[in-house]
Amino acid sequence: MTKKSADPADTTVPAARQVPMRDFSRSLPMSLLRAREAVMRQFRPSLREHGLTEQQWRILRALASIEAVEVTELARTAFLLGPSLSRILRDLEARDLIERRTAKADQRRSMVSISKEGLKLMAAVAPTSEAIYAEITRRFGASKLAELQEMLGELEQSLAGLGSADDTLADG
Amino acid sequence: MTKKSADPADTTVPAARQVPMRDFSRSLPMSLLRAREAVMRQFRPSLREHGLTEQQWRILRALASIEAVEVTELARTAFLLGPSLSRILRDLEARDLIERRTAKADQRRSMVSISKEGLKLMAAVAPTSEAIYAEITRRFGASKLAELQEMLGELEQSLAGLGSADDTLADG
DNA sequence: CGCATTCACTTAACATGTTAAGTATCTCGC
DNA sequence: GCGAGATACTTAACATGTTAAGTGAATGCG
Predict the structure, then answer these.
(1) N- to C-terminal Cα separation, chain A
(2) Please, which residues have CB within 8 angstroms of residue A7's CB and are 6 or more apart in sequence?
């Protein structure tokens, strides 16, 4: 732990230390991953008590503020890929937390909405969830939190359209 | 795509709009998730070309700077859970990218190190990876990037020891 | 020593991420 | 109105995340 072992005079090195790269643990992806994990660790226990995973909760929340959405738009909102969403919707429907009906105008489209059961579950989870979020805000600082979110948004913007030319998740 | 289809005249509202919560898409977990995805989207194609996943790459990078580590410490460094690491090490070993030997002092421990093949692969991937990182830094701004990482670290610190009392991943 | 406990790791089971292929429906040009 | 292409989703296949249980080896205590 306290042993750096990055000693230039270390002659016992079998193979390593030959590929020059940034310190791995300080890379941006790792920072983001660790930060997000630190945050989600706070929420998971509460969600778990209600039999919900993080993604299922995202979907319910996305549905709570609207009447009904197509699957594709829901995927964009909840930031899930189609296949993941497809599976989760199947399960949520089996649990009667959501409802699905085929759009009249376009038989390909499936309109998804939250059910009465789903709303009841949300009402049960929301207070705890909000309390946790409030505690995180208190610990980190509200203004700092806002600033962080601002920077995260800017980072996203910086990289928009850099990757694949056909970024499906891009905001039309 | 350009069709919103959120018809206000749809009087068939089933249930929604009854659970008061923050705007879902502006929650901290979502911001972190989107930001990280925006970043990783840049790296994945290059890694994929070399037959590596993001996690495999994390492991190789973690191994490149040391001689050998126990699996448990590697898990902490690469920020992977034991079971995931166990599987990935099995695969990387089958591909001769890493080597494993049981510790003499403690037969339970398994010492992992990167192989010559692994180093060769890293040497092949590193340039592109560094170039991508440089481009991200250029786009977002070096000082802003440093500031962001600083804030992410603080966020982590804020939440350390809030979740489970026995946070195994805590830095000793 | 004997044995319960702890430890390091693996396996198992289920859920999601990710890419590719499949299916049904729609659109459009002709 | 028909057939090629686009669209909206689903299924499939493989890899990882996550939790729980299993296995073998070390520790500690009587």
Answers:
(1) 48
(2) none
Judge if the beta carbon of A70 is closer than 7 A to nucleic acid strand D: yes
Q: Is B4 exposed, middle or buried (0-12, 13-18, 19+ CB in 10 A)?
A: exposed
Q: What is the pLDDT of residues A156-170, one digit of tens each?
A: 999 886 654 433 333
| Mean pLDDT for chain A overall | 83
- Which residues in window 37-66 of A are less than 7 A from strand C by Cβ? 53, 55-56
Cα separation, B96 vs B159, in Å, equals 39
Measure A84 CA to nearest chain B CA, in Å. 16
Q: Is the CB of A56 under 7 A from strand D?
A: no
ipTM at complex level: 0.84
Q: Is the pLDDT of residue B35 over 80?
A: yes
The A residues from 111 to 130 touching B (CB cutoff 8 Å) are: 113-116, 118-119, 122-123, 126, 129-130
B21 belongs to a structural domain: no
Decide if A29 is inside a domain.
no
Report yes or no: B122 and B51 within 8 Å, Cβ to Cβ.
no
Task: Name the token pair of B166.
Answer: 């026995």
Does the residue A15 lie in any domain?
Answer: no
* Strand D proximal to A83 Cβ, under 7 A: yes
pLDDT of residue B25: 80
Structural domain includes residue A86: yes
pLDDT at B9: 36
CATH (domain of B78): 1.10.10.10
User: ∠ CA(A109), CA(A53), CA(B33), 5° rounding?
Assistant: 80
Structural domain of A73 = 39-151
Q: For the segment A20-29, what is each residue's pLDDT rounded down to a tens digit?
A: 677 778 899 9
B21, B33, B115: residue with CB nearest A130: B21
Question: How far apart (Å, rounded) are the C-alpha atoms in residues A126 and A110?
Answer: 27
Quote the tokens at residue B62: 């973690």
Residue showing tokens 């643990």? A25
Number of domains chain A is built from: 1
